[in-house]
Design a protein that fits this description.
By secondary structure, this protein is α/β, with parallel strands linked by helices. The chain has one domain: CNF1/YfiH-like putative cysteine hydrolases. The chain contains four helices and nine strands, in the order αββββββααβαββ. The strands form two sheets. The chain has a six-stranded mixed β-sheet. It has a three-stranded mixed β-sheet with strand order 1-4-9, with no helix packed on it. β7, α4 and β8 form a beta-alpha-beta unit. The longest helix is centred in the middle third of the chain and has 13 residues. It is globular. The mean pLDDT is 92.
């Protein structure tokens, strides 16, 4: 992970985000979500999700088969970035993120957009947690759901895959910055 940090900082700079502090989560494969209102140098302990209404901060989570899930207010006022693999999905991190975002913004679920990023999927993995994430978001009343439908294990030239590489792999950095 430390070897990837300079590369990730360079990519963030290329996207015009060099001046935005990067706030990350410890990621313990749970369903806890932290509210981010100010920068944090160290990863926020005990959480797999980050939610903010603060501009000028970049949220970041690392993934290598688990799904990065972006939940954003369609009006741009707030967003959450979640790490949702098998355990996080079973624990309901996505419904929790949707409810928390709605509670903090006053928006209905129809005022949110959910995007499920690249993650491991069948037939490379026996559980289709991406499909369950979609079902959970629909069940909460989110109408706009995007799924890239990309399997990390099927594309070694483009994505890290913890399962494909038997744990000896890097991580992709998913980010969210409010404009």
């Amino acid at each position: 992970m430390a070897a990837l940090a300079p590369h990730q900082r360079r990519l963030l700079a290329e996207q015009g985000l060099a001046s935005h502090p990067l706030v990350t989560a410890e990621q313990i494969h749970g369903a806890e979500i932290a509210i981010v209102e100010e920068p944090s140098v160290k990863p926020i302990p005990g959480v797999d999700g980050l939610l903010t209404m603060t501009r000028g901060i970049t949220l970041g989570i690392s993934v290598a088969d688990c799904a990065p899930v972006w939940i954003v207010a369609r009006d741009g006022s707030a967003g959450a970035l979640l790490h949702s693999g098998k355990k996080g999905t079973e624990s309901g991190i996505v419904p929790r993120g949707i409810r928390e975002l709605c509670a903090r913004t006053g928006l209905p679920p129809s005022g949110l957009s959910v995007t499920i990023g690249p993650c491991i999927r069948p037939p490379c993995y026996e559980i289709d947690f991406a499909a369950e994430i979609r079902r959970q978001a629909e069940g909460e009343g989110v109408l706009e759901i995007h799924d890239e439908e990309i399997c990390t294990a099927c594309h070694p030239e483009r994505y890290y895959s913890y399962r494909r590489e038997k744990g000896m792999t890097g991580r992709m950095l998913a980010t969210l910055t409010l404009g």
